[in-house]
Amino acid sequence: GWLFYVWGHSYEFRTKEDWDRIEDFCKTVSNRDDVWYATNIEIYNYVTAYDSLEYSLDMKLVRNPSAIDVWIRHKNEAVVIPSGKTVALK
Can you point out the beta strands (E) in the chain? Predict the structure, then answer.
């Protein structure tokens, strides 16, 4: 899975150029349908659910024992593994 995590403190921005850079970045990544904006606990819960996925030995089945839907990439396609379900990977 991929995770791009942005975290920092305002005191780390010492110059106007620093602020301009972070504002430009925020404009670029804001209001996008393909970005999940999450809190720290949401990220923790999702990563925990992702790590709990159970694959069959032949990698053709994946089971999600968690209470959170998890997305994986299989054969370059996004596949959702619903909470509590087993999915056959084609």
Answer: 54-55, 61-63, 70-74, 77-81, 86-88
Q: Model-level pTM?
A: 0.78
Q: Which of 4-8, 29-33, 50-54, 67-71 has the lowest mean pLDDT?
A: 4-8
Are the C-beta atoms of 52 and 68 separated by less than 8 Å? no
Please list, in sequence order, all residues whose beta carbon lies within 8 angstroms of the beta carbon of residue 2, skipping any fewer than 6 positions away.
Answer: none
Strands 61-63 and 86-88: antiparallel
Using alpha carbons, list the distances in angstroms from residue 79 to 25, 26, 71: 29, 28, 6
CB 81: neighbour CB atoms within 10 A?
Answer: 23
How is residue 51 written in tokens? 């790590």
DSSP result, 12-23: G--SHHHHHHHH
74 bridge partner residues:
77
